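Cross-posted from the bioinformatics board.
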Amino acid sequence: MYHSRRDYLIAFLIILPSLCAVLIFVYGFIAWSIRTSLSAWEGIIPDFSFVGLRNYIEIFSSYRFQTDLWNTLFFTILFLGLCVLIGLLLSILLDRKVKCEGVFRNIFLFPMAISFVVTGIVWKWIFSPSVGVNAILRAIGLEHLAWGWFTDPAKYLNFHVALIPIVIAASWQLSGYTMALYLAGLRGIPVEVREAARIDGATEFQTYTRVILPMLKPITLSALIVLGHISLKIFDLVYTMTGRGPAFATDVPGINMFETTFRANRYAEGAAMSIVMFFMVALVIIPYLYTSLRKEKQS
Amino acid sequence: MYVNTGTYRLNRAISRGILYTILLLCAASFLIPIYVLLATGLKSFKDVNIAHMWSLPDKITLSSFVKAFIKLIPNLKNSLLIAIPATLFSAIIGSLNGYVLSKWKFKGANIIFPIILFGMFIPYQSILIPLVQFLSFIKLYGKLAGLILVHIIYGIPITTLIFRNYYTEVPDEILEAGFMDGSGIFQSYLRIMLPISAPGFVVVIIWQFTNIWNEFLFAVTITQKPSLQPITVALQNLAGSQIVEWNVQMAGALIAALPTLLLYILLGKFFIRGLLAGSVKA
């Protein structure tokens, strides 16, 4: 297609303000946060005297931040596992020419349209020890199954059981996303593939495990990356549902960073935490962006 | 096939029965929070006691909704005042960027796109401290205008992505006809692209409005005065207050969720498109 040189210049000028905004507000600010994390800023008045890695040593040796990292690890594993399993189950069920498929799909997806704050408030009620699930358990005589849920400080090998209710709430909100991805993937598999498998004598179950699931692997990967990076930076849901929890049982880097910075005014340490979060997310996202944009170019 | 058709039919009926049972059970459990919101929100304060937590209200009363609504009106208004302009501006910016990045690939455009795109994945904590300093510096800290600006800027990556993917699908030939007439980059945007952009705008507007309405981290960091807080922050404060008025909390939560929920129910198809666009590939 022929374009004049002037038009290309205009094209560049159209994108320039956005590019500058992103360069300043994303990259510039991250650089500024890094600078802050290397400073002695503690208190309301900024103090940018250079202290090297002191703040990083400080946070990594603090019990709270170590707990945050363990919590993030266990939360992420359980949350991703549940979302993939539920999403797969729902999409396979819905892919079987179900009546009212649209209604079901909407029911599984609507939680994505509401705020984490709303989700947090509702699920806080559901798992409140005195009212929610425990009340049902007591009513049906299963009182011995009632426990403290997110108020329980117990932990096994660094896994805080209080995280379970939050994992459930987060999976409720986001497994519709994996379902939508898988459903789109299943619809993209040609009928011939299933027929070929059947003709070869594969049972229904074998068709799924040997043929269809392997074909869905790229979808699983992008679901894991998108949900994984959400999990690494999660804040709203935990903040409204439990906060840091008993003995930091439900604390995550997002909460710690927020409280350290804006409640305790320890800006330099808060900045250090935010930069740790940034690198965790970048480690997941950059390879993902790189490969998916390269793939796009090839096709 | 030698299968007895009677057994076959029976088997099929059973397997369909199991399928629908599982689906209905899943659907019911996904709706539990909605049940909780409604059952608790429609009770009066004295009906919310431990013995009746899960039961439906004996007498349906809207008093909790009225109470929550009166309390939250200023914050609902704030959220609208933030979400509407921020959504419109970021949609327009996204549309222009998407147009350039799909149809005017000048040298370097392939580097600019990932540079912009990366901005939608970062944890916003990592820009929060400089952002607060910057907003204080330009005297927008604690103001609605500050939040609007923030949402427009951090909305650039996702809106650019959605429009770029949308315009990539538009065949180049449609534009070429315009260039034959000698129209430049702006004329062809206004005359050719814009008129066919409605679906793209709907997707972006729904997506941005929902995200901005539901957003919490920027809101809680940037707004201080209760009268200027958006709905999510006010709702969190309502829930964090000393007396646990579950009925008012639940009513408030439902009120806060209603606008985006309605958008989803009415225009769900476009919402899902925005959702899938978030995973980069077109």
